[in-house]
């Protein structure tokens, strides 16, 4: 029996999550996407939803009752605030693309979303509402805390600890065994070679 699902967020990650859901359904029909919730979608994103044959249902007040929600807000802090509004009354399931490579002893919380081509090594722990974008690589023994976003083609090397609400930018690399503190941002294409304190933004090679 298929279950109702609503996508929250009409931006790129929301629409890419639709691809993940449709890939899941090709293997086993699981989710019926009712549409997309967004308080203020741009005209361009409304056109993109129409091209995907997805209705815009309105703002958060229009959330259909008893439907599961895919929380597709890219900014970690914004995603955290919205999750606090919705939980515990709304189911926030994990949606894992079938092409995701998953190692042994993988553990994750609820609300995990992975896109196509993600690779997850052995003994990885992932918290709640983590986003792993296309072709993200998570090495062995990594811990990703709640509300982490790892953007496309980024690599978090083995034995790293990534704090709550961290954004790891597209094409960046965090070298082995490092810690990135809560609320920090790793810029696109950066190479992190040392621990990053909380609430910092680092960029460049090496990242500073």
Automatic annotation (TrEMBL):
Residue span(s) of domain PglD N-terminal: 4-86
GO MF term (any one): transferase activity
Active site: 140
Record PROSITE patterns: HEXAPEP_TRANSFERASES
SUPFAM superfamilies on file: Trimeric LpxA-like enzymes (SSF51161)
KW Cell division (keyword) present: no
CDD domains named among the record's database cross-references: LbH_AT_putative (cd03360)
Transmembrane domains' residue ranges: none
Alphabetically ordered keywords of this record: Repeat, Transferase
Site feature: Increases basicity of active site His: 141
Binding site for substrate: 74
PANTHER family: ACETYLTRANSFERASE (PTHR43300), UDP-N-ACETYLBACILLOSAMINE N-ACETYLTRANSFERASE (PTHR43300:SF7)
NCBIfam families hit by this protein: NeuD_NnaD
Protein name, per record: Sugar acetyltransferase
Native species: Janibacter melonis
């Amino acid at each position: 029996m298929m279950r109702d699902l609503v996508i929250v967020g009409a931006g790129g990650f929301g629409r890419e999550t639709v691809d993940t859901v449709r890939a899941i359904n090709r293997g086993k029909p699981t989710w019926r996407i009712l549409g997309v919730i967004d308080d203020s979608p741009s005209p361009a994103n409304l056109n993109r939803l129409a091209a995907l044959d997805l209705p815009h249902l309105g703002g958060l007040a229009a959330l259909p009752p008893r439907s599961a929600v895919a929380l597709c807000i890219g900014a970690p802090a914004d995603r955290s605030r919205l999750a606090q509004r919705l939980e515990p009354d709304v189911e926030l399931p994990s949606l894992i693309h079938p092409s995701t490579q998953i190692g042994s002893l993988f553990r994750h919380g609820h609300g995990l979303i992975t896109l196509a081509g993600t690779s997850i090594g052995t003994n990885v722990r992932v918290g709640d509402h983590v986003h792993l974008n296309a072709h993200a690589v998570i090495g062995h023994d990594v811990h990703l805390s709640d509300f982490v976003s790892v953007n496309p083609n980024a690599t978090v090397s083995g034995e790293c600890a990534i704090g709550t609400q961290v954004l790891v930018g597209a094409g960046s690399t965090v070298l082995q065994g490092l810690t990135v503190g809560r609320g920090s941002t790793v810029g696109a294409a950066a190479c992190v070679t040392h621990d990053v304190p909380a609430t910092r933004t680092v960029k460049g090679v090496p990242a500073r």
